[in-house]
Design goal:
The structure holds two protein chains of two kinds. Chain A is an alpha/beta fold. Chain A folds into two domains: 202 residues, Rossmann fold (3-Layer(aba) Sandwich); 126 residues, no CATH class. Chain A contains 15 helices and 15 strands. In chain A, strand 12, helix 12 and strand 13 form a beta-alpha-beta unit. In chain A, helix 2 packs across helix 4, helix 9 packs across helix 11 and helix 12 crosses helix 13. The longest helix of chain A is centred in the middle third of the chain and has 22 residues. The relative contact order of chain A is 0.14. By secondary structure, chain B is an alpha/beta fold. Chain B has one domain. In chain B, 42% of the residues lie in helices and 26% in strands. Chain B is built from seven helices and seven strands; from the N terminus they run E-H-E-H-E-H-E-H-E-E-E-H-H-H. Chain B has a seven-stranded mixed β-sheet, with helices on both faces. In chain B, helix 1 packs across helix 6. The longest helix of chain B is centred in the middle third of the chain and has 18 residues. Chain B is globular and about 50 Å long. Classes of the chains: A alpha/beta, B alpha/beta. The interface between A and B is medium-sized, with 28 and 28 residues.
């Protein structure tokens, strides 16, 4: 998988940006120029479900009157694209009604489904729409976005789950259940077992409606392993679960990481790796070092592999400021790993940074000839800027232009 | 209204120093930043520091004259910093002054567009709408836009041959005093105070 071109319009701080990435793409520029937004836009293109978050309305560029986002990426033989817009009132209400009906029907047993078979789905939807009050209507309108994917399939996403809505939805479900009961013959309506069953089904409907509104938090959608967005390398390794609560699958995963390191000879003389110790073959024989005493560059590399261990070849990896918490001395080690991964494992990297050390390393004579030759063909520095806070301007610097800017013109590659 | 002037080298520095004196600017109103004079280890950060300090409100300098060490550098640095300058200084506050060395104006315009767009992810349009000239100089007022959005305006001053040629400074002119006097004479003789007053004031 290799992204050949990226086109982003009206997404967050980006007004319009079109660029042709290479294997290693380093995004630089001042704060709020849209570097992280580029990573988020690419991530959203592959993980549409990430649109569902409490701040999804802030995805729209505030300087644009047009409330429509377009993101596309070209892979040579195919294209991924999405369009996002605000939902119209009719769409938001109708979508919620459909979701609620689906929840109803999923939670009613065969018995009650049979009982309600005379009531058509459309009727149920209408009933729900009638019971939606102004507060719920406004919430749905403000918190629903339409995402049109590459297959021209429109899907409505809710921005967040608001706890204050539980009561609203609960009352709504109660009213609908009451209304449904009224439509039944009296002997069935008075059947206590049936009523108990209906109450249970209503409660479950409320529960699954909450699930629909907060679907992403359940991790219900599969993650595309070809595109990985990493916010913090260290967090990948340590942040998820305390050591005392590590599970057998964590050890299996670390074993996978060890295998990748050894197979690709990423760390010379590595003999073994576990959460406590790293064992090396040295001139003096086998030596074990506590994992925590090893350099941050090494730990970041393991963090990167940890995240990628499900799928490691032919993928796109996005790293947001990997220099965070890393001493400048270790950035070199990390960047050498990144170059190596990209070359050997065919990984395309998109890396945002504010680090002069990181830029100096990729353009330095300290890298070996093979690494430099790779970067000469495969490095792209995307220098982002803003005019009047609203217009995105970006420069593409290949290896040659970056060296010229840094060494000949003596300018700061990150911009003024 | 702050202005940044990007030019070639030391003689341009003298030229602007003399011109600004004639335009009644005091010594505190402007600063000459010579990139070549920076210590090697400070070179990279010196430019960023200088530009960032210049745009601060507390900085009393009205004009920053940047000497880039040759035409090649002046054009490249202009192309790189143009966005920053049109964004952070006054409208029309950016001025590029270079020698044509006998080159056609059209050729220079095209090569400037080429240098600028050689770096950009999306092409920029330069609209050289306003042209003024005298026997020695061209003045082009230039609008820059991208994707139909105007980004800003700047001025280009082109010496038809070169500043040195116009002033009569030859390789044999070694004394600084002599150079200053020749440049000053040229400014007064050609009424450049009038030519530059609308660009700089």
């Amino acid at each position: 998988m290799f992204i050949k071109s990226v086109d982003i319009e009206n997404f967050k701080g980006i007004s319009k940006l079109k660029f042709n990435p290479k294997k290693i793409n380093i995004l630089v520029g001042k704060n709020n120029t849209g570097k992280t937004s580029v990573l988020e836009a690419i991530d959203l293109l592959f993980h549409n479900e990430n649109i569902q978050n409490p701040f999804m309305h802030s995805f729209f560029n505030i300087y644009s009157e047009e409330k429509s986002i377009k993101i596309s990426a070209n892979f040579g033989d195919k294209e991924e694209k999405i369009e996002i817009r605000e939902a119209k009132e009719r769409e938001a209400i109708s979508n919620f009604s459909k979701d609620l009906v689906r929840s109803f029907l999923e939670n009613f047993s065969k018995k009650s489904k049979k009982t309600f078979s005379g009531i058509l789905t459309r009727e149920l939807e209408k009933l729900i729409e009638n019971y939606i009050d102004d507060e719920l209507r406004n919430f749905l309108l403000k918190n629903s976005l339409v995402l049109l994917d590459g297959n021209s399939e429109e899907k409505i996403y809710y921005s967040s789950y608001d706890y204050s809505l539980i009561n609203k939805i609960e009352i709504l479900i109660e009213n609908i259940t009451k209304n449904l009961l009224e439509k039944l013959p009296s002997e069935q309506r008075d059947d206590s077992e049936f009523r108990r069953h209906l109450k249970y089904a209503s409660e479950n409907t409320l529960f699954s409606t909450r699930g629909i509104l907060m679907e992403h938090r359940h991790g219900a959608k599969p993650i595309k392993k070809d595109v990985v967005y990493i916010n913090s390398l260290e967090e990948e390794l340590y942040g998820r679960r305390p050591i005392s609560q590590r599970k057998p699958e964590d050890s299996e995963r670390l074993h996978k990481v060890e295998k990748i390191v050894k197979e690709n000879n990423l760390v010379r003389n590595l003999e073994g790796l576990d959460f406590d110790n790293v064992v090396f073959q040295t001139k003096e024989g086998i030596k074990a070092h506590s994992f925590h005493f090893l350099g941050d560059g090494f730990k970041s590399m393991i963090g990167l592999l940890w995240k990628l261990s499900d799928k490691i070849n032919n993928i796109v990896v996005m790293l947001d400021e990997p220099e965070k918490h890393i001493h400048p001395g270790y950035i070199k080690q990390l960047m050498k790993f990144i170059i190596d991964f990209s070359k050997r494992l065919n990984i395309q990297f998109f890396i945002t940074t504010h680090s002069l050390d990181l830029l100096d390393i990729v353009l330095s004579e300290e890298l070996d000839e093979e690494e430099r030759a790779f970067l000469k063909d495969e490095l792209n520095i995307l220098r982002m800027d803003k005019i009047r806070d609203s217009i995105t301007i970006a420069e593409n610097l290949d290896y040659e232009k970056a060296v010229e800017t840094k060494d000949e013109l003596q300018l700061d590659l990150r911009g003024v | 209204m702050k202005k940044i002037i990007i030019c070639e080298g030391k003689h341009d520095g003298i030229f602007f120093e003399q011109l600004l004196k004639n335009l009644n600017f005091s010594k505190d109103d402007f600063k000459i930043f010579d990139q070549e004079n920076q210590k090697k280890k400070d070179k990279k950060s010196a430019e960023t520091r200088e530009l960032n300090s210049f745009i601060e409100k507390y900085n009393q300098n009205k004009i920053l004259i940047k000497l880039e060490g040759g035409k090649h550098f002046a054009i490249k640095i202009f192309s790189t910093n143009m966005r920053y300058c049109v964004e952070n200084i006054s409208p029309e506050g950016l001025i590029l002054m270079i020698d044509l060395d006998g080159e056609e104006v059209e050729k220079r315009k095209n090569s400037l567009i080429e240098t600028l767009n050689g770096r950009m992810t999306m092409p920029m349009n330069l609209d050289f709408s306003h042209k003024m000239e005298n026997d020695h100089l061209y003045h082009l007022k230039t609008k820059v836009s991208q994707n139909n959005s105007e980004l800003g305006q700047f001025h280009i001053i082109l010496f038809k041959k070169s500043l040195e040629h116009s002033c009569g400074i030859s390789d044999g002119t070694c004394m600084l005093k002599e150079k200053i006097s020749k440049i000053d004479e040229f400014i007064l003789r050609e009424n450049l105070i009038n030519f530059f007053s609308q660009i700089i004031n």
